[in-house]
Amino acid sequence: MTALPYQGGTSAPIVRPGALRDLLRRHPTAVVGGFLLVVIIAIAIFAPYLGTVDPQALSPIRRLRPPNAENWFGTDSIGRDIYSRVLYGARISLIVGFSVAVLSTAIGLVVGLTAGFNRVIDAVVMRIMDGLMAIPPILLAIALMALTRASVQNVILAITIAEVPRVARLVRSLGLSLREQPFVEAARAAGTPSWRILLRHILPNTVPPLIVQATYVCASAIIIEAILSFLGAGTPPTIPSWGNIIAEGRVLFLVAAYIILIPSIFLSLTVLAVNLLGDGLRDALDPRLARGL
Amino acid sequence: MGVVAIFVFSLLYLSPGDPAAIIAGDQATTEVVEQIRQQLGLNEPFLSQFGRWIWRILHGDLGYSIFANQPVSQMILQRVEPTVALAICSMLVSVLFAVPLGVVAAWKAGTWIDRAVMAFAVLGFSFPAFVIGYLLIFGLAMWANILPVQGYVSISKGVLAFLPNIVMPSLTLGIVLIALIARMTRASMLEVLSQDYIRTAQSKGLTNTKVLVGHALKNASVPIVTTIGLAFALLISGVVVTETVFAIPGIGRLTVDAILRRDYPVIQGLVLVFSASYVLINLLVDISYTFLDPRIRY
Prior knowledge:
The structure holds two protein chains of two kinds. By secondary structure, chain A is mainly alpha-helical. Chain A contains eleven helices and no strands. Chain B has two domains: about 55 residues, no CATH class; about 220 residues, MetI-like (MetI-like fold), CATH 1.10.3720.10. Chain B has twelve helices and no strands. Chains A and B meet through helix 4, helix 5, helix 8 and helix 10 of A and helix 1, helix 6, helix 7, helix 8 and helix 10 of B.
């Protein structure tokens, strides 16, 4: 289906006037979440230009200063500027969140689709996935992190392995129900090879629920990264991440509450933004589901 | 469970460092290390080691801790009480709050009550357990000064001594669970409330409470109970964090310590215990279906 080339002299505006207001009215949560997320992404990208100093720079004279004009969010026990650390920390959380979301969705998609179409693979792969699902994701990530050296890549990998089974299951069940749909039957009757049915008929229909699932995976990955770092099994202490900052504040929380509070607020806002965006997308992409939950 | 066992064993097998060398200490000669290795059967192939390990696990032997020089099973047993107490209290708190919240939200669907409950549910999902924990400490313990900051008192020392310390950890763990269960309760109730038999019940003049609890909630209970089973996974991960925040000497704290010290046999044992209890809880949930819905039979 190709669109006719536009014949007029002036080009029509791509965005209809009032479209934004329309979007805001119909999906306020998605817009609020998206806006918050854009702000946080901007903070992460432009961290070096937002009046920050080196997040690792020590300044023993300025230890444990509460928030003041010079150090907006105060300093920690070895005099590092928490404002800078929190801003740079946004990078880690977002990198981990997005990488895990993309990786586990991609892997889950491949695993789930093949399992949905081949009985033998289905039996083997889904048993492994069930086994992995019997271990709570955090525990699985902790156990994997205990095996390897602490690094951001390993954190991403560990959380991805913990999240893949859920995505694979979703894709598999979607594939199984789509396979019985009349349009797949029609395609098969027309002699379409099964790889083509998979790619052209099944795959596009799994995309909307997967996008929604990916946002939830992203939110959960950000939380798990923070928890791993908080427990000392995540991002190495040399890299500022929100979990690390909170972990360092743990022993000092009676004297310097702000060390924990400020990164906590950022962390919660980020996760909230991703969750709101996910809820909004779900409402927009799948009206059937939206009524239920 | 079999996959879990293989995974957990591989964890130890692949773990860096030679257990024999660690046990023998720094001054040991190569011969001594080799002898210990023989003794522990570390030179045997993967499968034979795995077989012996499974055999020992089935006899309740989880091996020895590298650091504490104590059987792992004994270490876990010593620490089990606070965790179980915490888990039960959190579950009680969350079910007591979540189910009524969800029911009311579904009944008043579309009103501000419904929106408030749903907003709370989204917030509950977004705040990691340790953030809620510290907020509660700052609010209730340091500012209002009505509850102790941290620590744990065993229930064997009396309920009155036990309660103040368990309130904040239970709430911390409970909020995520409340969010999850309330959401599911609402969704499930909405589905049921649109059924014909609810209209019948209403038209024959039953009170709202009777319709909601006796007819609707009863029929909506299967997905709710399923969610409670799933919530157990959240509970386990929450326990690890909450015990760290509130300095509770339970198995969650033991997990963290074991990870920080790379005490692999202990990590292994704990992952096994957690996973086994998770599987067990979900089995109980499956069995409970037959009571909640007589149509389901196994």
